[in-house]
Each structure stands twice: as structure tokens, then as C-alpha cells.
């Protein structure tokens, strides 16, 4: 196996084990997962081999595909799929019986209309009892969970006005609008959260 320089996220390296500990039991009875915004590809390359019963479909904007493919080529798995191009504001639901969706660190870099589009996209496509798992920083009642998150939010907004840490209640309302019922809201390392919803109808 040849290992090359690949895009690398230290945050992905740090959070993969805590996230997987919560995802693994949740996904035991699922068969086909769509990852929205696979980023570097690190999560997919690490999670998929440990969930052999589950097809793991990566996706991202086309400019991120080369890096994802490098990770998938260096860490191949029979159930791991090459990325599809996906922009949530324009995408059609992929072919296949997808019954789970996972996304990490995307909501705070999308524009709000894209976050709305993502929830509509997921809630429209998932079958009854399908699950949607979202990882990242959130605010609660307008308050950041830490000083580091407050600073991160400011830096996001300085770089691009449409970015920023989202409010939990606004995010959860988008889920409710799409018949996604909150199952769990897990506190995670580095002041992040893992939200898990299930499609009710």
C-alpha cells in the first residue's frame, strides 16, 4: 500500500473515535449511509471498514474529490464508495436505498439557506426510521458553550458573513419541519455536539 501526502484535518483525527463510539450502535441495522460533505475523507476511511454491513457513500463539492479519493485509495474498503458531487441547494437524492445520513462540520460553513436546503433534502429522502446525524458546534439560547466557540464564531463571520455557529433550536426546528424527531443530543470533545434525528413518517 502506497501512502501519499493527503489533505489532513487534525480535528478529524481527534474526534473520529468519540464520534464512532456513538455512531456504531446506531448504524448496526442500517445498510446505506450518505455522508454529506466528506471533506478530507478521513472519517469515511476510518468509519467504513468498521461497519462492513453498511455502504458508506461519500460526497462533496467537486473540488474536494481528489483529496477524498486519495484517502479512499490508501485505505480501501469493500463498502466504501467514491464521492459523488453534491451541493445540497441543488442536489437530487442519490440512487440507492439510503437509510442514514451523516454530516460533520458543515452547518457552520454553509449559508443559512443551504442549511435549510440540507434539512429539506435529508427529510425528503430518508425513509421512515432513517437517521440523520449532525456533528459540530452549536449555540443554545444564543449562548456559546465556550469562549473558544465564541472566538471561532467571530472568525467564521469575519471570513464570510454567511457563516457562523448555528442555534440549536433553529436547527431542530428545521428537523421538526421535516418530520425528523430528535433522539439524542450528545456533548462531544472540543465543545462540539452530535445530534441524532429519526424520520418519523
UniProtKB/TrEMBL annotation:
Keywords carried by this UniProt record: Methyltransferase, Transferase
InterPro entries reported for this sequence: DUF938, SAM-dependent_MTases_sf
A GO term, aspect molecular function: methyltransferase activity
SUPFAM superfamilies for this protein: S-adenosyl-L-methionine-dependent methyltransferases (SSF53335)
GO biological process: one example: methylation
Pfam families hit by this protein: DUF938 (PF06080)
Protein's name according to its UniProt entry: Class I SAM-dependent methyltransferase
Amino acid at each position: 500500500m502506497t501512502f501519499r501526502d493527503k489533505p489532513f484535518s487534525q480535528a478529524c483525527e481527534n474526534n473520529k473515535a468519540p464520534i464512532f463510539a456513538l455512531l456504531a450502535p446506531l448504524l448496526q441495522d442500517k445498510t446505506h449511509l450518505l455522508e454529506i460533505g466528506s471533506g478530507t475523507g478521513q472519517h469515511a476511511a476510518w468509519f467504513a471498514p468498521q461497519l462492513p454491513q453498511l455502504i458508506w457513500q461519500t460526497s462533496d463539492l467537486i473540488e474536494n474529490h481528489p483529496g477524498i479519493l486519495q484517502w479512499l485509495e490508501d485505505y480501501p474498503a469493500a463498502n466504501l464508495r467514491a464521492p459523488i458531487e453534491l451541493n445540497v441547494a441543488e442536489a437530487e437524492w442519490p440512487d440507492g436505498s439510503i437509510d442514514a445520513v451523516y454530516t460533520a462540520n458543515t452547518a457552520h460553513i454553509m449559508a443559512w439557506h443551504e442549511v435549510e436546503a440540507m434539512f429539506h433534502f435529508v427529510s425528503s429522502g430518508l425513509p421512515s426510521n432513517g437517521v440523520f446525524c449532525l456533528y459540530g458546534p452549536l449555540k443554545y439560547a444564543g449562548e456559546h458553550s465556550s469562549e473558544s466557540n465564541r472566538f471561532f464564531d467571530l472568525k467564521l463571520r469575519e471570513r464570510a458573513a454567511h457563516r457562523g455557529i448555528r442555534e440549536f433550536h433553529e436547527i431542530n426546528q428545521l428537523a421538526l419541519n421535516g418530520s425528523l424527531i430528535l433522539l439524542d443530543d450528545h456533548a462531544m470533545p472540543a465543545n462540539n455536539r452530535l445530534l441524532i434525528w429519526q424520520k418519523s413518517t
